[in-house]
Design a protein that fits this description.
Strand content of chain A: 5-15%
Oligomer: homodimer
Order of helices and strands of chain A: HHHEHHEEHH
CATH architecture of the domain at 49-128 in chain A: Orthogonal Bundle
CATH class of the domain at 49-128 in chain A: Mainly Alpha
Keywords (chains A, B): DNA-binding, Transcription, Transcription regulation
Number of strands of chain A: 3
GO molecular function (chains A, B): DNA binding; DNA-binding transcription factor activity
Largest interface: A-B, 60 and 60 residues
Protein name (chains A, B): MarR family transcriptional regulator
Helix content of chain A: 55-70%
Number of helices of chain A: 7
DNA sequence: TTTAAATAGTTGACAATTCAAGTGAATATT
DNA sequence: AATATTCACTTGAATTGTCAACTATTTAAA
């Protein structure tokens, strides 16, 4: 009978009045797929895909990362990241070395060609972001980001 | 020199002051993966995965869908959905039939076992949603949803 | 009414991801 | 110091997803 719990009913997937259009994770999934598809279009001509792209961007930002670091940021499984990295190495995009301070860790960096590749893709990717946030002001973008982060933090506890 | 364009710089992936933590699609991707991983934990004991689950939920809501309908809602490629559906049929979760009004379309529905399966999984999945939106009020959830939809709509033009 | 074009889905070859089970290096325990 | 445990990957087998090419059905055009 209380207003709040009644209203919340429609977000409860098990509820009879559940409305999927009102379910945030439905839109997170769709938004993510759509973004990925748009990006693939930009990436394909450069012989890249979304997986390689995510790894490359992280390396561009951080300079040097271990396989686990990449897995953590890109939220992928270790074997998956391992294989992406070695694929990228075979394509000349990254260098792979064993850490000098810890023999267990594998350190990955972008090669010159990898850097060039990233920069030329970057030009094309901006349009996707612009399109999605068309009409948004800076504070709105910041708030959107805060929201996404908050949900992520909540879920990772 | 203008305030706005300077502030917006950090969201431009090509920019030198780009900060990935401020990039909404980075968080969309991470949030989506994290949600998927949490869901997988709940789904695994019932012999389900996220793909099957998405198809099952859509069928629970809509009752009957064609392969393309499912592909559209789940934002998957046609061959992918086709294979998921036939896998689910082999596992007894769905029925697959040719439409009586249009011989090209394949109509998919949940079997009784599929329904039971969905209901028992639903019990477990609520906690994931609750965890993510812990501390959110109903208007906040609604606003979050609006935001995600808006981004999706922008991108799909 | 043929023929052409568009739809809706399927299939097979290939690529990517994932699980389970390993390896080898570093830490912790006895 | 020897052994056990944990950590950070790596590998192979199996599953899943994707592209390209194809089939069958319906709709549109000539």
């Amino acid at each position: 009978m209380a207003g709040r719990s009644e209203k919340l009913e429609k977000y409860r997937p098990a509820s009879d009045n559940f409305e999927i259009d009102e379910f945030p994770f439905y839109w997170v999934a769709r938004l993510n797929s759509l973004y990925a598809m748009e990006m693939e279009k930009t990436l394909k001509p450069m012989n890249m895909d979304i997986s390689r792209w995510r790894v490359a961007m992280l390396l561009r930002i951080h300079g040097e990362l271990s396989i686990s670091d990449i897995a953590e940021h890109a939220l992928g499984k270790l074997p998956t990241i391992t294989k992406i990295v070695y694929r990228m190495r075979d394509e000349g995009l990254v260098d792979v070395n064993t850490s000098e301070t810890d023999g267990r860790v594998t350190v990955v960096t972008l090669t010159d060609q990898g850097h060039e590749n990233v920069e030329s893709v970057l030009e094309g990717t901006q349009s996707v972001f612009k399109k999605a946030f068309k009409g948004f002001t800076e504070p709105q973008i910041r708030k959107s980001n805060q929201l996404l982060r908050k949900l992520f933090d909540n879920l990772s506890d």
